[in-house]
TrEMBL record:
It catalyses: beta-D-fructose 6-phosphate + ATP = beta-D-fructose 1,6-bisphosphate + ADP + H(+). Allosterically activated by ADP and other diphosphonucleosides, and allosterically inhibited by phosphoenolpyruvate. GO terms for biological process: canonical glycolysis; fructose 1,6-bisphosphate metabolic process; fructose 6-phosphate metabolic process. The active site is at D127 (proton acceptor). One of its GO terms (molecular function) is metal ion binding. The gene is pfkA. This is ATP-dependent 6-phosphofructokinase.
Length: 319
């Protein structure tokens, strides 16, 4: 291969820039020309493609978001849309594509491989909801953002002796809620992967209150519903004042942590190596701190597994 391209797609995540940088620089190291596709698959269909140089990825390793921008595209889900994309790649002489994004983006990448364009996926999402990898790029940064926010909320919760219900992102996955809950010492964590019993949550609040606890923090994953609903039920059943905080999109932004920069650098470079080794239709992952690659088909057929032992641990530490 002489020319390859990289794009970012779906929800953005901190560390995507570090992955783009790694891919561009690794390609240059191998003497291969890298192109950047702007605005994800939407931009690919419209030919928003530009050559990238060593300098075009300078000064971005520490920046959140993605310099290539991201987009969602309904048209690309159609056969005609995918053919447009393939035509653009052929016109530019591009022989392989790296897709940084989530599972939706990987399904799109699979379609391109079926149409003769070798693709490699790099998992970039704050949700950590991709199977076959221990971590996705952006998860650690979002986790740290949440923990920092909870620490601040804890200060005011203590001063006012209130119960705070904090809703965090993660789509259908509870990883962000679970890890943040344990790291910030929340009293209860409500996630889609584990059944929760409101009687138990209320009893834990009362038990804390009996031993003189002045405040409580409950983390709710967005995948189980709205924090406001839980707050209302707790208020009805305890008579205590509750406050709701929905952290929202601040969780998507910010300078990536050192962990995410490391992960992105390793994965971005590995994606280039895989393409040049003739691999296709695969996703890069990290398992036990080793970079691995797995077939898209296998990865997408599985369900992401949350580590329930962390949930059990959090319960035993928050009594
Ligand atoms: P994420 O990659 O973060 O999961 P999305 O699910 O929104 O985000 O997917 C990003 C884009 O990937 C979509 O807007 C669409 O263009 C493309 N895509 C998603 N699913 C498919 C599919 N089944 N076939 C083709 N393209 C898809």
């Amino acid at each position: 291969m002489q020319k390859i391209a990289v794009l970012t797609s779906g929800g953005d995540s901190p560390g995507m820039n570090a992955a783009i940088r790694a891919a561009v620089r690794r390609a240059a190291y191998h003497g291969v020309q890298m192109y950047g596709v702007y605005h994800g698959y939407e931009g690919l269909m419209r030919g928003h493609i530009q050559e990238m140089t060593l300098g075009s990825v300078g000064d971005i390793i520490h920046r959140g978001g993605t310099i290539l921008f991201s987009a969602r595209s309904e048209e690309f889900k159609t056969e005609a849309g995918q053919e447009k994309a393939v035509r653009q790649l052929h016109e530019h002489g591009i022989e392989g594509l790296i897709v940084i994004g989530g599972d939706g983006s990987f399904r799109g990448a699979q379609k391109l491989t079926e149409k003769g364009i070798p693709t490699i996926g790099v998992p970039g999402t704050i949700d950590n909801d991709i199977p076959c990898t221990d971590f996705t790029i952006g998860f650690d940064t979002a986790l740290n953002t949440i923990v920092e926010a909870i620490d601040k909320i804890r200060d005011t919760a203590t001063s006012h002796e209130r119960t705070y219900i904090i809703e965090v992102m993660g789509r259908d996955a509870g990883d962000l809620a679970l890890w943040a809950g344990l790291a910030a010492g929340a009293e209860s964590i409500i996630i889609p992967e584990a059944d929760h019993d409101m009687n138990d949550i209320i009893e834990r609040l009362h038990a804390g209150n009996r031993r003189g606890k002045k405040h409580s923090i409950i983390i709710v994953a967005e995948g189980v519903g709205s924090a406001a609903t839980y707050a209302e039920e707790i208020k009805q059943r305890t008579g205590w004042e509750t406050r709701v905080t929905v952290l929202g999109h601040i969780q998507r932004g910010g300078s990536p942590t050192a962990f995410d920069r490391m992960l992105a650098s390793r994965m971005g470079a590995a994606a280039v190596d895989l393409l040049l080794e003739g691999k296709r239709d695969r996703m890069v992952g990290i398992r036990n701190n080793q970079i691995v690659d797995v077939d898209f088909k296998d990865a997408l057929a599985q369900k992401h597994q949350l580590d329930l032992s962390i949930y059990q641990l959090a319960r035993t530490l928050s009594i």
